[in-house]
Amino acid sequence: MNFFVLTLFPDMIKDTLSHSITGRAMKEGKINVEPINIRDFSNDKHNHVDDYPYGGGAGMVIRPQPVYDAYKSIENKVGKNTRVVYMTPQGETFNQKMAEEFSKEENIVFLCGHYEGIDERVIDEIVTDEVSIGDFVLTGGELASIMIIDAVSRLVDGVLGKAESFQDESFSESLLEYPQYTRPPEFMGKKVPDVLLSGHHANIDKWRREQSIIRTIEKRPDLIKNAELSKKDIEFIKKIGKYDLLK
Ligand code: SAM
Fold it and tell me: Which parts pass through the membrane (predicted)?
């Protein structure tokens, strides 16, 4: 999968993603991350990319021309139907479902704003999706796009090794993941649940499923209504007295 990032800070993108699992995926060619420096496309003799906002007010606004030309420089490579995602606090909030949807694309372009943002006309011209990473304001879209590239990459075939599987992970089936334990079997007087040491796979699966349900109900009760629940799951929810949450 190819990620193109239109940005004023290309080093931030490559440097951050070149570690750990995303770094390995880039080296192995499972993902390709290509930052495009918007500044390289400025037609201003001082390479300025921003200007004062019409109507006054604080801060600077990124001019439409360098953004448009930066996008045009990759349009041939990505094709006209590629999603161009503007990172903005005004967008739809990113979630795992969106990560799954993005991971099906072959190419995806992220547009990172800075300062007060980007001239609206170029957003209207090239952007297909507006995405936020939460209800807060960052200085720029770089960290937001990195976060999304990370979440999407790990869903791309071959990026995670067997040992790093995303099966059962939080938000799959709208449930949070069960608690995890590793060695030693006892730490500060706290023991790993016996069932996990039993080697009885059916019992372990049952325990994990129930723990997922309990966790979701305790930590994110808003999710449980949309969870993919079996008859057994519903029986269990009735048993723990939380059936009302499904109504
Ligand atoms: N003036 C803009 C507003 O109030 O909507 C905020 C501009 S912000 C300081 C600069 C850039 O950071 C934005 O253009 C956007 O690319 C990025 N950004 C800030 N917060 C973000 C968020 N929550 N999610 C995604 N991108 C964000």
Answer: none
